[in-house]
């Protein structure tokens, strides 16, 4: 008999896998990342179906229960991902700023640009 | 010597025209960096430039913050072959006459960078605490003690403007500039200046929240 938390975890896992595949198909996720996410969520589903399967980890690592070990690893992984994401966003923000600056500089408007525009139209007339 | 005044502006339609009027009356070249304003700032500045055939504007299509705007302004000024570059706030808190105060040490070759220092005793209490904390933070993270690390009125010579690498996009830029001065062994001079406090200028600039944001970024930088 499945407990409610198991059912929720399984549904969540399946949903996340479908989402990963859809995002990959839309070109919004790389192939490698899709496999990583599918593996992670398959792991979650497997553990939800059979929580006792983590017992060997408990024996192996000396952490009381296998599920605790999984949770600790999960938490660490989450922190790592947040850190990675923060860095990524920071890089994107930097690139965005560079892009905005480049556009602003090429479209700079002022006294000289107007003079240049005038000479340009003047030479156009000559042609 | 060509002096360019960089005016970073974000939603400053109420004050920008007077600032530009003062600058052009005094004969200074200026570059307004409109940092993605959503009010009439951009139109007002463009109209002013067209009517007076004086000055430049660069528009950030998206709001990227004070630091990003200052960097754009410095680059635009260097493109125009500026010898001295001044940063000047658009909210009307600076007295335009103080531009002479900060550029004179540069023109006389006494310094590479000159920073206008506000009188902390004259400052409203809420600002005084925030700015004192920011001075302390600047000292801890960049190892240089200055009278007013968050001052918006600064002057650079060409050498300094080219050497400094500005990465901070927000208000953290003020501290970063101080750090860059130290990193490149630039000669720094601090001169006292006036600050005009109005209800409008009080709302802008570094407050406690901005201070905390800058602090968290600096700490993060340590671990990066």
Q: What do these coordinates show?
A:
- The complex is a heterodimer of chains A (127) and B (224).
- Chain A contains five helices and one strand; from the N terminus they run ααααβα.
- With 127 residues, chain A is mainly α.
- Chain A has a domain at 1-49.
- In chain A, helix 1 runs antiparallel to helix 2 (31-49) and helix 3 (55-61) packs across helix 4 (66-106).
- The longest helix of chain A is centred in the last third of the chain and has 41 residues, at 66-106.
- Residues 117-127 of chain A have low confidence and may be disordered.
- Chain B is α/β, with parallel strands linked by helices and 224 residues long.
- Chain B has one domain: Spore Coat Polysaccharide Biosynthesis Protein SpsA, Chain A (Alpha-Beta Complex).
- Chain B is built from nine helices and seven strands; from the N terminus they run E-H-E-H-E-H-E-H-E-H-E-H-H-E-H-H.
- Chain B has a seven-stranded mixed β-sheet with strand order 3-2-1-4-6-5-7, sandwiched between helices.
- In chain B, helix 1 packs parallel to helix 2 (41-52), helix 5 (125-142) packs parallel to helix 7 and helix 5 (125-142) runs parallel beside helix 9 (208-223).
- The mean pLDDT of chain B is 89.
- The A-B interface holds A 87, 93-94, 96-97, 100-101, 103-105, 107-114 and B 31, 33, 36, 46, 49-50, 53-62, 64, 68, 71-72, 75-76, 79-80, 167, 169, 224.
